[in-house]
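Deliverable D4.2, example record:
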Amino acid sequence: MTLSTAEIYQAFGRQLRLFILKRVDDPDDAEDLLQEVFIKIHTHLDTVQDHSRLLPWLYQVARNTVADYHRSRRPLNELPETLTEDPEPLEAEPAARLAAGLSEMLACIPESYRQALEMAEIQGLKQSQVAERLGLSLSGAKSRVQRGRAMLRQALFDCCHFEFDRRGGVLDFASRPDCCETCR
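Output generated by the structure prediction step:
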């Protein structure tokens, strides 16, 4: 059963208004956003394939509209006419410090996996090119690259303790006491 935009407004308009009001301080802005949400609903209602999932879709449209609103209101900081150089050098980002020691760790990986990994990751070759250069099938090259990555990852975790942000980015790391010189 497909509902019209007017029926959706009657059934869910109040809920969506409250949802938006919780996320926007100004009631007038919230009302404008609700109208914007219903314009998007009207425009894209025909793209909803599973009408049992209509309510989550409506809330996603409202969430995205509120996010766009907040993003557009974020102040832009202008750069000064003249930028001064920072007199003290910043400590290298953890990922950059770690990358500097990867060649030592790569040396610990068996030759066949190291070659495939270096070609794919350092030289930037496509895995089909790696396969051709090493005389392997494409699936064989993919397997070597994946296993090489796993070996390098294990070497890193054996050597270092990592702190990650919620997205998996490296915040910081410290070498373990019995670690090689790579992480120091």
